[in-house]
Amino acid sequence: MRTKPNIIITGTPGVGKTTHCETLAASLGLTHLSINTIVKDRGCHDGWDEEYQSWIVDEDKLLDEIEEEVKLGGYIIDWHACDLFPKSWIDLVVVLRVNSTILYDRLKSRNYPELKLQENLDSEIMEVLLQEARDSYDEEIVVELTSNTSEEVDSNVARIEAWVAQWIKDNEGAEKEDS
Ligand code: ADP
């Protein structure tokens, strides 16, 4: 049984996942698990997609790579998909959302290829990641938060910190009941 929760921070590229994960990891002492970095550094891919300028992820290899670590608890998973992670690993799924004009500006400044930029904007407008999260996990662990401004980052972080503190308290209680 985990003594610290595992959290997924998901959403369309550019919504602010990394910004949230880094802040939360520092304040809570949890580990920021950037799936992008793992895919790249541990070779969990079938090559590079030139058109999309991204790795073609080998999901089975990725899950094998992180399983032992993540099962210990205390990880904040940073990825623009969530349906690959087994339900039993995950305690909270945060789906970050952003206004499409703001997202356009953020992706434009990253020099995304036009096709990738448009597909990501469409995905945000169509709520693709929110739906994926709701289809993959129990509704009570899926939370939708907006991330248009830095004030919203601060309030989202405070909310997630409070949730983690409560989860740890509840979990300690459960452990005492077991013993
Ligand atoms: P993601 O990990 O979802 O791709 P990032 O955290 O890398 O997103 O954020 C993308 C860009 O937008 C970064 O330049 C970041 O500083 C900025 N940013 C992210 N969230 C916010 C926010 N809520 N308000 C203002 N700027 C933000």
UniProtKB/TrEMBL annotation:
List its EC numbers.
2.7.4.3
GO biological process entries: ribosomal small subunit biogenesis; rRNA processing
Q: Which UniProt keywords apply?
A: ATP-binding, Cytoplasm, Kinase, Nucleotide-binding, Nucleus, Ribosome biogenesis, rRNA processing, Transferase
Question: Region LID: which residues?
Answer: 109-119
Q: SUPFAM superfamilies per the record?
A: P-loop containing nucleoside triphosphate hydrolases (SSF52540)
Q: GO CC terms for this protein?
A: cytoplasm; nucleus
Assembly, in brief, is: Interacts with small ribosomal subunit protein uS11. Not a structural component of 43S pre-ribosomes, but transiently interacts with them by binding to uS11.
Top EC class of this enzyme? transferase
Protein known as: Adenylate kinase isoenzyme 6 homolog
Question: What gene name does this entry carry?
Answer: FAP7
